[in-house]
Every structure is written in C-alpha cells, then in structure tokens.
Specification:
alpha+beta, about 40% strand, five-stranded mixed sheet
Amino acid sequence: MLNRWVVMPTCLPTVLRRCHACASRRFRANGKFRVNANHKLLDAWLLVLCTACGETAKLTVLERANVRSVPAGLLDRMHGNDPVLAGELLQDPVLRRRNHIALDWGGAWRLDTGGSDHLGREVIDVSVRFAARIPVRPTRLIAEGCGLSRAEVERLVVEGKLVSAVRLSGKLSGDFTFTLKR
C-alpha cells in the first residue's frame, strides 16, 4: 500500500536580504503590494518588512510594463494584496535573481503523513509530494514522518533498507518516492 505524504507551507518564508537601515538580513513578507502607474506603464513591488527595525523594502515584480501586457487577473490580485500571489512570486527564480534575495523556509512548512498507521509495518512505500518548492533534506522528512532519528535514517540508507530513485543526501524540492524495509 502506497502512503502519500505532503510537504505543505504554513506561512510565507523569510526573505534573506540585507537591510539598508540596520544591516539585518531577514525580512518577512506579509502579502502587501504597491502598484504605480505612469501613463501606460506599470511598476509593481512586493513589500517586505525588516524583522529587526521594521523598515520596508520593495521587491520588483513588474518594471515599466505596458498596461495592456499585464493580465487583468494579476493586477486585481496585486491590488487586493493576495498573500497566495505573494507566495507564488517569492518562489519564482527570476524574481529572486532580479532582486538578489534568498528564502529561508525554516519553520514555514509542515509534513502531513495522513496518520501514524504506517509506523508498525515492516515495509513502507511512500510517495512524497511538495505543495510548494520548499527545499528540505529527504532524510529529515523520512525521520520526521517515521519517528526516527536522522542518524538512524542515514544508517538505513547505508544498509540498503531505505531505497529511492533520487539521492537522499542534500536537499530536494520536488516529488519523490522511497521504500523503507525494517
């Protein structure tokens, strides 16, 4: 029987960028946008607040975009300060590269295993799905989902009792499956 686990975001991740006011490196996004129109051109920013001093920084979403080229639904979502849109934009690699930011997902996600009925079985087949592109160590997910220590999970990998088509070392942000034999 295949168990399905889901890695789900619980809140927006922390934005890592240097604050110009206090030299802190952590900002929190609250889903607020600023849109500015200059004739037929639009500029749009996602606003983030420094966690230390509260200073506001702007992350460029649109820069000198023609009004007709911006989908009406996107513009409505920005005017409505849609937090889901903020989460989608923060995960966009182009936006992160353009604004020279990184994301810290620590404490901003949870693992939903669908219950603990799999813990007593000899063989467990699990499909892990990511609801958002959250980089997490697979050994950490397996340890948390199976109630094991990370050292024990790594020992099971070495012994060949934990197998997967993907490398279990490093971080993953895409779906994968694994089989655990006790």
